[in-house]
């Protein structure tokens, strides 16, 4: 399932995905980076997330049910649009959007801090 964000964020995609509880992994064969979030202490099942681009931020999410069954193949039992994947996609979306709004508040706070005492007290005049 694709999760697409048209907003621009001040923080990196890596930071945003990690903020959602995902850990970074690297495929030893392809050297590709992706992110996973385990559902319990075992390696599987787990949510698996790929970041495709920075702007717009596009995330590809699926649920790995088990490890690939055949050596040399990457095929596995994966859910791409089940209800649990949709719920996780919505959770990720909500967290990242909230984090983006928090970043906007931080920028406003920086502008306010840069203003002098009287400008903060009476407001900036443009």
Q: Notable features of this structure?
A:
126 residues; 6-stranded antiparallel beta sheet; 6 strands; alpha+beta
Report on this structure:
- The structure is a single chain.
- This protein is of the alpha+beta class and 126 residues long.
- The chain contains 3 helices and 6 strands, in the order E-H-E-E-E-E-E-H-H.
- The protein has helices at residues 13-19, 83-114, 117-122; strands at residues 2-5, 23-26, 33-38, 46-54, 57-64, 78-79.
- Strands 1, 2, 3, 4, 5 and 6 form a 6-stranded antiparallel sheet that branches.
- A hairpin with a 7-residue loop joins strand 3 (33-38) and strand 4 (46-54).
Query: How much helicity do the residues have?
Result: 25-40%
Number of strands: 6
Taking the sheet with the most strands, its summary is:
6 strands, antiparallel
Q: What is the gyration radius calculated from CA atoms?
A: 20 Å
How does the helix and strand content classify structurally?
Answer: alpha+beta
Count of individual helical segments? 3
The mean pLDDT is: 83
Q: Please report which band the strand proportion falls in: under 5%, 5-15%, 15-25%, 25-35%, 35-45% or over 45%.
A: 25-35%
Count of discrete structural domains: 1
Q: Note the gap between the termini.
A: 46 Å
Unreliable stretches (pLDDT < 50, length at least 5) are none
Q: What spatial form do the alpha-carbon principal axes imply?
A: elongated
Q: What is the N-to-C order of secondary-structure elements (H for helix, E for strand)?
A: EHEEEEEHH
């Amino acid at each position: 399932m694709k999760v697409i964000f048209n907003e621009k964020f001040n923080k990196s995609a890596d930071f945003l995905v990690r903020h959602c509880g995902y850990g970074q992994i690297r495929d030893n064969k392809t050297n590709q980076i992706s992110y996973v979030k385990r559902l319990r202490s075992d390696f599987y099942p787990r949510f698996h997330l790929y970041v495709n681009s920075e702007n717009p931020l596009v995330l590809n999410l699926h649920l790995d049910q088990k490890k690939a069954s055949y050596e040399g193949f990457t095929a596995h039992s994966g859910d791409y649009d089940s209800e649990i994947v949709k719920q996780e996609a919505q959770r990720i979306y909500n967290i990242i959007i909230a984090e983006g709004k928090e970043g906007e508040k931080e920028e406003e706070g920086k502008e306010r801090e840069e203003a002098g005492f009287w400008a903060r007290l009476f407001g900036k005049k443009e």
